[in-house]
Structure formats: structure tokens, C-alpha cells
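Trying the structure run again after the queue cleared.
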Amino acid sequence: MYKTIDFNPKKALFTQLSKLDMDNFEFSSSCYITNSDIMNNIEIMNMPLKDKTKSVKNILKFLAYLDERIKTNDRTTEIPIPQKVFIKYFNVDQYNKYKEILIKLEILAQVKHKDGKWYSKDLKICKNYQVFNKYLNCEDFVLVVFDNLKSGHEIKVINEVNGIPKKFVDTIASIKINIADALQAEIEEYHSQRINLHQLKRRISRIFASSSERKISKGKKVARIYTSLSNISKVTRKHFNIKFYEMDIINCQPTLLIAHLADHKKQVDIDYKNDCENGTFYEKFIDIFLIEEAPMVDATLVEIARVETKKAIYKNVFFGFNRKNKVNLKFKKLYPEVWESLNDIAISKVSLACILQNIEAELFNSLLPQKSDYYYTLFDAICYSNDRDTLELENKITSFFLNKNIKAKIKKN
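Done. C-alpha cells:
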């Protein structure tokens, strides 16, 4: 069975939910956030399975996947979805019936690709789906809570990485989130306008998903370690049951690029090297994204602009190369030698993302805090539970970069 709880993101969580509601999060086998009209319509619809609760859960799992796929920056509403995804969530015998339900609920429908084709086995193009604006623009949500277990439950961890330290796996299994406090903190983040409504919905969905099952995996083309905590926001991480210290490298990917270019005997502008080592690389572009009309530039605006700056640089310079984009043009003006190297890489079709992420993984996959009972990595950061590991971790990270003639700037929270 399941229970639905009305949820208004414009209000504080504690004014909407009773203590019993919040306790239900802890004792539930799984929770979801979805649009209120979706649940209202589901209640009166026939489901593919006799067990309606299971059908509802299947739909909500798929919608969590869909929300994760939607790009919030450009509001992309067309998404290619392979058949195997539908089979994963709805099984091979029933998935077409579920697709009919998704259409009736005005969530999505199949559309042609930009080339006018529905599907092409030869080109290995999967079917394309339009996500309806009615679904995307909804502002009324419900929280759906399944199965009151009356006691806490163990979080299942699926580890797909051979040779990963047991301490890492135990950490992923041991971390618990204070869900009520995390939800309230994310609502406050939305009220501060640091994130939009869809991002809030997605963050809440990630909180719920990581509280029932977790996975540890390695990238297909890179050695990066991914876990179900990798996409949990910094805001939510403050509400873990274990206190962690976090150490990361400021401007990590831009700094790793210096090492890659040096290995291939490419020239690096001295200004680029200095800006990366001083931790001021992104600040050279932040003015592009600050709102000029704002009466004053406060810390929140700067923070938002910095996030947009990073996204734009990766999209238009590092991992994509849009020569007409204003960020790319400014990069060319500031760092002409590095720009030429990136231009050559773009022409060669080599994946710079894979190159830099593998260098990053070479470092962070080798770190093992000895005195901490718990630790895990977050791509270019490591989180550990004992501060006595700080000096040793700093030395290892510093040495890694000094061996490449780079002085990395390290930050500890």
C-alpha cells in the first residue's frame, strides 16, 4: 500500500507535514515525488497488473528516471528512450500497456527525430519521445510513501567494481540521510532562487532513491567511480548521519588539462597556468553571466553566475567546442595557445572528457584515508570522517600534481 502527501514547494516543509508523515519517510521501503494530477488520474485508471500498488510504483520509478533525463538549462522536451529502458521499468510483456498509460496521463508520446525518421536500426537510433509541457510545468506535487515497515530497513548496495576497498563499500551502505531536514534545506535552496522548480523535484527524487537502494559502478569509457551518492547535492550532504570532511581541487579539470597538454608537448599560456594554480580560472568568465541590471551583485548572484560559468565552459570549450560562443571567444582571447590545442583536439574528435576524467580517476581512486572509518569519493573530491587524515591526503594530492610540474590549489571543507 502507499500514502500520498500533498506537497507545496512554496511553503516550509514543517508547516505541511505532521511528525507522523516525516517518520513515514524513515520507515518507508520507498518514496517518490510526482505531480499531483498524475496521482489523481492514476487512482481512477485501470493498471496493467492486478497488484495496482506495484503498477503505481513502476510508473513512479520510470518518472524519476524521466525527470533525471530532462535538461533544465535548455528545457529540452524531446528525449530518446531505448526500448530496453521501458522493459527495465515495466517488463517485456507489459511495457506497451504502460506506454499507453503514459500517453493518457499526458506525460510523453513518441515523435519523429529531426531527420523525419521514427526509428532506424541501421543507425542505431532509438525512438524519440516528446515530454509534454503539462507535465514539465506542473507546480503541484505529492509525496508518495510506500509500505510502513514499522522499523528501519537496511539499504541494499549493489557493487559492480572489483577491487574497491571494503571501507568504501561499507561507507556507501552506512550513510543515512535525515530526509525531513534534507527536504527542508532543499526547499530553502529553491526559495533562495539558486535552483529552479524542476531541479528541486529532481533533488528530492534523488534523496528518496538513495534511501532505498545504492549502486557502485565504474564508467564504461573512464575509470571514474560512480555511486548513488554522486548526484546528491551539497545541500543534502550536510544532513548525512556521519560527519565528513571534504577535500577537493579548485579548478580541477582545467588544471588537469595542463598536465595533458604538457605530456603531448603542447604550449600552455602562462596566464592559464597561473589562473588554474591560483584557483581563479572560472572567475575570468563570470562577468558574462552576472546580471548587469541588478542593483547590487550579492553573494547569491555570484554563486549562481559561477555555476552557469562552469556549465558554459564545459559545454562550449572543454567537452564541446563552439567557436562562435561568447565563452569560447573570450577563452581564445585570454589563452590563445591553449585554445589552439583545444581546437586541434576538437577537430581530431578525441574525447577530452575521457582523457581528463581518467587522469582525475588515477589520483582519486588511489586515495585511501587510513584513520577514517568512513570515506567515499566524489569525482574530483574525497570525503573522509577523521580529520587526522587531512595532512596525508594533502601531501598525496600535492605530490601527484608536482610530479606534473603543477601546483594544485586544494580546498578543505
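Confidence is low (pLDDT under 50) at residues 292-296. Worth checking whether this holds up in the mutant runs.
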